[in-house]
Structures are given as structure tokens and as C-alpha cells.
Amino acid sequence: MTIQLDYFVHHVYFWLKKPLSRESRMKFENGLKQLVTIETIVGKHIGTPASTNRGVIDSSYSYSLLLTFKNKEDQDIYQTHPTHLKFIEECEELWEKLVVYDSVSITP
Question: Residue 3's pLDDT band (boundaries 50, 70, 90)?
Fold first, then answer.
């Protein structure tokens, strides 16, 4: 995935409740896969912590979701999109914590 300089970046980290059944984990993953179908998303990545081990790396999360949008307005549409609201409604019981980092590019 190439991120252009003028994109709005939305990165979400999820810490799922433990223990979590295989069925619940699949429900969460399927929810993420539906979430990334929202039409204003121009780039996406769903991931789990890499097997890297350095002091600066936080791999305590369960899943990450990285989305890019053309602009903040498209990200605002995503926030109120029925698919996003359905994901929250159906999956929020599965996580104990989530952290969101939104960023915009600085001019080179």
C-alpha cells in the first residue's frame, strides 16, 4: 500500500478480552473485513503484532486496523457509515481497550 502525502490516516489498535473463543475471534475478524469495504476508504491494512522484539515496540495489542482516506471529510463519512456503526454494535463487547491515532501529512 502506498500512502500519498495528502491522505488522512486513521489507525486503530484493539486489545481483545481474554480468554476469547475461536468463534468470537472469527466474529471480530469478519467484522473488520466488512468494515474495510466502506467506499470512502482508499487504503487498508488489518494486522496482528509482528514477531519483532525491540524495546521501542509495543506488541501488547491484539489487532490493528490502518485506514487511509483522501481527506478528513471522507473519514467523517466513514465514522457515521452504517457498516461502521454495525461493527461497533456487534463487536465492541469483544475488546477491553482500543486506541485511535489519526494523522495528516506535514508538508515536505
Answer: very low
**Count of beta carbons in the 10 Å neighbourhood of residue 47:** 11
- The range of the structural domain enclosing residue 72 comes to 8-49+60-102
Total domains in the fold of the chain: 1
| Assigned domain for 3 exists | no
CATH number at residue 75: 3.30.70.100
pTM: 0.89
Residue 68 located in a structural domain = yes
Strands 63-69 and 41-47: what pairing? antiparallel
Rounded CA gap, 20 and 80, in Å?
28
Type of residue at 56 = V
13-61 confidence digits (pLDDT tens): 999 999 989 999 999 999 999 999 999 999 999 999 999 999 999 999 9
